[in-house]
Amino acid sequence: MVKSERGAAVLALVLGAAAIGFAPILVRLTETGPAAAGFWRLFLAVPLLAVMTFSKREPEGGATPWKLCLLAGVLFAGDLACWHYGVVLTSVTNATVLTNLMPVVVTVAAWLMFKEKPARLFVVALGLALAGAWMMAAAKGAGGHGTNPTLGNLLSVVTAAWYGAYFLVVRAARMSASASRVMFWSTLAGTPVLLAVSLVMGEQVTPLGLAGWAACAGLAVVHVTGQGAIAWALGRLPAATASVVVFVQPVVAAILGWIIFAERIVPMQALGGLLALSGVVLAQWSSARSSAQASAQALAQTKTGAEA
Question: What is the C-alpha to C-alpha distance for residues 237 and 139, in angstroms, rounded to an integer?
Fold first, then answer.
């Protein structure tokens, strides 16, 4: 990759992560319920994604994995519902940082379900992430901590599990379809699910004024541009560089939460966030290192077999 293309990918990654950092702020400004905010985020994004998806010619031979896209949409709806409630119930900083535990949650799930024993370095990373999460949840004196911080923190961690499952399903769907096509169909599938959740929860579904509608539109733009920029960049950068996304998003969200909602960030909360995010980055680096070593061993065994 030439330097200019790599630089463009890094810039896209940082800008995409920064854009997503606005999402929890916009959720609070929509003047709707949490799940309803997720509904408008997806509903208003569908036309934009349709233009992106169907304005370009798809290569022949690729079939849309409908079942996987449907499952991805349901999982993403669960992700948004839990996270948006987390944003309302706890601080913006906690909700954003705890959601980024997704890589750790996915690896632990693979460990428990598929007996994929992680490297020792990952265990260290897991310890850092969990210690940081506990410190953030236990921090006293943080401003704007929400109406039910314990439940909000828990929902934010559950969000990481939802998003981890969504990530794995999307990765499987991407084997036979483009990113824009998978994103369009999964977004379309998740839209009615969030509407149903908001109605069952008795939420305010329609924004009360122009400011609320503007926030809903902003969520849709963030969904398309932020996620799209990150998806484009991740295909062009190594895992170690891509992990910068973990730090940019919560930092932007924390700064905006402090400016707009006067949410104080106490030292224990800040240290916990740093430990949690460091654990996530270390876990990603450990996984990438293990994959590289496994590939090298497989290549060596293939060579040995060929020579024999």
Answer: 35
Cβ proximity of 154 and 89 under 8 Å: no
User: What is the identity of the amino acid at 60?
Assistant: E
Q: Token pair for residue 22? A: 């606005």
What are phi and psi for residue 44, nearest 5 degrees? -75, -20
With left for phi above 0 and alpha for psi between -120 and 50, is residue 2 left, alpha or beta? Answer: beta
Q: How far separated are the first and last CA of the chain, in Å rounded?
A: 36
Summarised one tens digit per residue, pLDDT across range 42-77 is 999 999 999 988 887 655 445 678 899 999 999 999
Most confident of the following: 114-123, 181-190, 225-234: 181-190
**What's the CA angle centered on 110, arms 109 and 114, to 5 degrees?**
120
Q: Collapse the DSSP code of 74 into the 3-class scheme (helix H, G, I; strand E, B; otherwise coil) and give the result.
A: helix
Which 8-state DSSP code applies to residue 226? I
Q: How confident is the model at residue 285 (pLDDT cuts 50, 70, 90)?
A: confident
**What is the number of H-type helices and E-type strands within the chain?**
15, 0
Global pTM reads 0.80
Token code pair at residue 280: 């996530």
